[in-house]
């Protein structure tokens, strides 16, 4: 996956999301306004935030496409991670607002609720539309290996459950005449939206903190070192993601009697072996040390530490 293809897929995902959510948000807000359904209005607000998310995505694509410069020697790919964290806050705010509205309704501050067949039909259309959007966002997110698009796909998948809940609340309210059912559904939807937002933020924060929980990737790097004759004791291994690409730092030990050229050749072989095992590698920095150097390292993982994760 090249950076150009990644940006192309992210841009396409944003355009599809804007178009689909604009239609669904309009339908839900209109139906919610005329029926007085807090849950349906909340779902419409959620779809409106999805439009904002996609607009932000298009802006971030422009930032990501900028080449590296003196102030950003690693490029501008981390803008995607920052944007993902921002999207989490937007989604969280939408969920919190919906919960406040639902609580007010349950307290009797809003009583003008008149469920209608039109509102139920709109909910059914929303379910179909969100399923289609969730599928396309997921596929494009996988192709681009984009945390931002994948997060939006999860958000769309949550919206399917939201729409199912809205329709259930409308049907119950229509059959029983109990307006509180709609407000209870709205309250649950708000809580679900907040849960989704927290999950997205935690994933983005892990990348912002240069963390990595995918231990299998560390094993791939160690296997690459072991496959190269003359490369020993891989240690001080650090891996981080920058907009879906891996940035890898690694120390290896070689025979201290080797020439600089020979040691450099071994390091180059290690780099090639890593690229065979890992896709989307942004950069690899390999530090060569003489065997038995014995330096105590403060950062990174050693082969022994990584091996223990499989035991």
In short:
The protein has nine helices and three strands; from the N terminus they run αααααααββαβα. It is mainly alpha-helical. The chain folds into two domains: 3-208, Alpha-lytic protease prodomain-like; 215-308, Alpha-Beta Plaits, CATH 3.30.70.1350.
Provide keyphrases for this structure.
3 strands; Alpha-lytic protease prodomain-like; three-stranded mixed beta sheet; 2 domains; 68% helix; 311 residues; mainly alpha; elongated; Alpha-Beta Plaits
How many alpha or pi helices?
Answer: 9
Q: What would you say the CATH architecture of the largest domain is?
A: Up-down Bundle
Shape: elongated
Share of residues in strands = 5-15%
What is the highest CATH level, the class of the largest domain? Mainly Alpha
According to CATH, what is the topology of the largest domain? Alpha-lytic protease prodomain-like
Strand order of the largest sheet: 1-2-3
The string of secondary-structure elements, in order, is: HHHHHHHEEHEH
Mean pLDDT: 80
| Class from helix and strand fractions | mainly alpha
Give the C-alpha Rg: 25 Å
Full CATH superfamily name of the largest domain: Cation efflux protein transmembrane domain
